[in-house]
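chain below, 343 aa
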Amino acid sequence: MDFLTLFLMYLCLVLAVTALLCLCPGRRESFLARSASRASQVLSLVIPTQLQRVTHRALHRLFHTRSCLFVVLHVALQAAVFGEYTWEVFVYCWELQFHLLLLLLPYLLLAGNLGCFLLCSRANPGTVTKSNAAGLVKVYAYDGVLFQRGLVCPTCSVEKPARSKHCSVCGTCVHRFDHHCVWVNNCIGARNAGLFLLYLLSLTATAGAVAAVTAAFLLQVLLLSNVMHSTYLDAQGQEQPVDIAFLVQHLFLTFPRIVFMLGFVVLLTLVLGGYCCFSLYLALTNQTTNEWCKSRRSGGSPHLPSQPPDRPLVCKNIYSKGIWRNLKEVFNPPTALERKKKT
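prediction:
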């Protein structure tokens, strides 16, 4: 089995796993959840109980408590990619007389991304407290399906405004709760949703710029070396024209770190690009990830006491005001005072 076939199999496997992780969380009894539950049951029969407890505590601390581990990993990955880009790609491209602005573009995007990252991670996402709960209740209307009036958070002991949710990781209720992002170590809510969208867009653009410059460099190397027009001897000793597999293998043997970095950055760009499209869709339709997942769950929301059991509740987005107003709301969330003036 040649190098290109193995690489494509690996790429398809990673993309398939990523797609499952992105598509399945919104479904209560998804195939992924059932498979993980069955796998854990089988492993519990083999793994010692003490090791299970240690693993459970480690996973709980990693994913259910605020931790800087993913932030450190985030910075380390960016440092590794830009270290390789600066050490080899930038130097080689400068010798090949690439335009300076093209070579500096990834650094400019990185600076913008780091700025959005710091602002998003340190911003107040819209914490609901006893002092502001009465005002936040007036910002959004209750739809009666996903959000119902009069519910009190048992942990925070405050009335839950519409579109809010208690974050078990941060231990607070967040207004217009979207999700808790481990990469910025903060909740994404009404007051930093716009920053998170800019962070996501700039991160995707940064990865895409690094991938584009690196791919242009490797293509230039192939054109200058005339490898594309040469031949090679196969296993039977017969002369064959070069194909894509040979070119990829030639580049991998010549520039192993650059090719590995390019594969990682391309995959990262595809994953981030898909998530960017999803986030833009939510922003343009004035939805949050929390609301989207709730509306997709099988069986819908529980019936209200006054609702006949034979009439299932239908989730309808009552918060959408049109594309431009929805997008404006992401970057400039409404307040209780603005709501009062409109009414």
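Residues 4 and 10 are 10 Å apart (CA to CA). The beta strands are 127-128, 165-167, 172-174, 179-181, 186-188, 231-233, 239-241.
thats it, cya
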